[in-house]
Amino acid sequence: MATNKKKKGLLKLSQGEDVRRQITNILMLPFLPPDEINNAFCNIIEDLSNIHVKFLKLTDYILETYIEEPLYPRSFWNLFDLIGIRPKTNNHIEGYHGQLNSHCPTHPTI
Q1: Quick one: which of 48, 61, 57, 62 has its CA closest to 8?
Q2: 16 — phi, psi (to 5°)?
Q3: Per-residue pLDDT, 42
Q4: Nearest to 63 by CA among 31, 29, 16
Q5: Torsion angle, CA of 81/82/88/89, rounded to 10 degrees?
């Protein structure tokens, strides 16, 4: 990927804080509610195109593949509905292991 960036002249541009923030925003799109994705992506396109026109290839690809004429349906890649279902931490697993360890000695004799 770095070689591809270097070829396209994006390596220097991608080191800026504004660009990194917008790339992170692109990566976070699956965590937004589905009805907010279009507006958020429009903001990303606007910000990246203000930085440099070379980012339009990237935003066009994402727009065609995931937003306007999706190759993959939004229900396939959007994770917003799963956020509330799954536990946010692994404390329940740690609690189980703590109970299990309390019933077993540290160095059991076999």
Answers
A1: 57
A2: -75, 150
A3: 92
A4: 29
A5: 180
User: Which pLDDT tens digit goes with each residue over 51-71?
Assistant: 778 788 888 988 888 888 888
Q: Which two tokens stand for residue 2?
A: 């770095």
The whole model's pTM is what? 0.63
What residue type is 110 in one-letter code? I
Alpha-carbon distance 1 to 81, whole Å? 31
* Distance from C-alpha of 15 to C-alpha of 26, rounded to nearest angstrom: 16
Residue at token pair 């917008």: 22
Q: Of 58, 60, 67, 84, whose CA–CA distance to 29 is shortest?
A: 67
**Quick one: tokens of 77?**
């890649």
Distance CA 62, CA 55 (A): 11
Q: Tell me the C-alpha distance between 75 and 72, whole Å.
A: 8
